[in-house]
Amino acid sequence: MPGIQEVLIEILNSVGGLVCHQLPERSFEIGGHLLCVCARDTGIYIGILVGLLLVVMGRRERSGPPSLYLILAMILPLILDGSTQALGLRTSTNQLRLVTGLLFGTAISPFLVYLLPLLPLPRRIPVLRSIVPSEPNLDGDDPWLPAHALAVGIVIDVVLFLLIDSLADSADPVLYWIVSLPIAISLILTIFVVPALVLVSFIDFYRRG
Amino acid sequence: MGQNIFREGTVSRRGGIVQFEGLEFIGLSGIFCCIPLIWFIIGVLLCVWVYRDAQSRGMEAALWLLIVLITGILGLIVYLIVREEKKPPSSV
Questions:
Q1: Strand, coil or helix: what is A60?
Q2: Sign of CA dihedral B85, B75, A143, A134
Q3: What's A30's DSSP letter?
Q4: Which tens digits make up the pLDDT trace of A153-163?
Q5: pLDDT at A197
Q6: Which residues, at least 6 apart from A13, have a Cβ–Cβ distance to it below 8 Å?
Q7: Residue ranges of chain B whose CB lies within 8 Å of a chain A CB
Q8: How far is Cα B3 from Cα A64, in angstroms, rounded to an integer?
Q9: Which of A24, A137, A188, B75 pairs with A69 at a CA distance of 20 to 30 A?
Q10: Domain assignment of residue A5, yes or no
Q11: Does a structural domain hold residue A176?
């Protein structure tokens, strides 16, 4: 029988395979195992968690979106890196994929959280109700999440980038789990919880007419 | 070596494809099929919102619909940056 560790790794890889090509040459190997998603997705999914942590710095009474220019500046590196590679103009590196992914995830998750109150359901869910802006206004000038919160996110991203990059090719299997745990949490949130929340929200919305 | 937990003919993570029997056994494969569909529906609803919002602001609604359809979240953020002030309802 395979050990519990092997089974957990295969489950992680199966879930990762739903959203990622999992090419070995584009993935980090830590503790003798390839991570369940590629370097870019490792960055994105860990970045999503960083962005969610920043949400605690949001001010519910404010209605405007987080700085759209800053969010754009944080997601553009990934789009440029990915698109120029896809067009065959250049080949990226795992380090570049990781850092651009971290910035992308950190920028995108607070923005999506900000948009959640536009759906009818999240305002009624206790945890979300205490996080999301009470009256979001996409035209508002008072950002719900201040720009300095995103700047803190960038600093955290740089630290995480240096940490994960230094762990690549290390032999200690514990390190694999330390990096995989946030990826797993983020994957579950992204591919199960959020779609389920949105689906229930729409069903509820249309059921009520 | 432990017992093979994979189906015949499938290759492991390092080969790029994994089909874990256990996930199918507990019926998760059906849910997995729904996830892209749900994200697709979210994308379509997003495009509809952009179309209506652009229309209400007197912007090129079809063009923005196309841009957001192709570029996704990037197009949405650019749209939110460049969109014009909402026109006040015209009085007759």
A1: coil
A2: positive
A3: E
A4: 999 999 999 99
A5: 78
A6: A22, A36, B12, B13, B18, B20
A7: 2-3, 5-6, 12-14, 16-20, 22-23, 31-32, 34-35, 38-39, 41-42, 45, 73-74, 77-78, 80-81, 85-86
A8: 56
A9: A188
A10: no
A11: yes
Q: B79: nearest CA in chain A?
A: A68
Of A66-80, A127-141, B42-56, which has the strongest mean pLDDT?
A66-80
State the Cα–Cα distance between residues B68 and A117, nearest whole angstrom: 21
Q: Would you call A10 and B86 a contact, using CB atoms and an 8 Å cutoff? A: no
Q: How do residues A174-184 score in pLDDT, each as one tens digit?
A: 999 999 999 99
The whole-number pLDDT of residue B22 equals: 47
Instruction: Work out how many domains chain A is built from and give that number.
Output: 1
Amino acid in the structure at residue A88: G
Q: Report the mean per-residue pLDDT for chain A.
A: 89
User: Can you give the pTM of this predicted structure?
Assistant: 0.84
Give the start-to-end residue ranges of the domains of chain B. Answer: 13-82
Q: Which domain holds residue A184?
A: 21-208
